[in-house]
Amino acid sequence: MPANAVDAAALEAILLAAPFHRWLGLRLSSLDEDGVEIAMPWREEFVADPAIGYTHGGILAALIDLTADFAVAAKLGRGVPTVDMRVDYHRAALSGEALVGRGRIIRMGRTLATAEATIHRADGTLIASGRGVYLTATP
């Protein structure tokens, strides 16, 4: 696996350049040679059903995608487009729960990379997991 092309401050700057990522409230909480950790605070706008108060699956899918994507971005020094993605939902993320995504690369190729991500509650409970394929070739 190649070394990281950027440090944590540079990767977070790339992450926060996108208005959607800033709206989500994302923060890079760790970066090492094995992967990334991205924190996302809970927002009322994430709620899919006000009566129950669980987070919409699309928000969780976005965090899976971004966490896996930025594991790859750390190695390339730039964000990469998603080619394919899969998400498995294991538990509901309830109102008020901050979430943490952990991502790592499975395979890094010259054209495509495969990376996986998990989302956990602050107490470590698994909420969702997924895998994505990302275009590493320069567009």
Could you give the topology of this structure?
Elements: H1 8-15, H2 19-24, E1 27-32, E2 35-40, E3 47-49, E4 54-55, H3 57-76, E5 82-89, E6 99-108, E7 112-121, E8 126-135
Antiparallel strand pairs: 1-2, 2-6, 3-4, 5-8, 6-7, 7-8
Structure characterization notes:
This protein is α+β, with helices and mostly antiparallel strands and 139 residues long. It has one domain: Hotdog Thioesterase (Thiol Ester Dehydrase, Chain A), CATH 3.10.129. 24% of the residues lie in helices and 40% in strands. Strands 1-2-6-7-8-5 form a six-stranded antiparallel sheet, with helices on one face. A two-stranded antiparallel sheet has the order 3-4. The model has no long low-confidence stretch (mean pLDDT 96).
Task: Summarize the entry for a quick read.
The chain has 3 helices and 8 strands. The chain has helices spanning 8-15, 19-24, 57-76; strands at residues 27-32, 35-40, 47-49, 54-55, 82-89, 99-108, 112-121, 126-135.
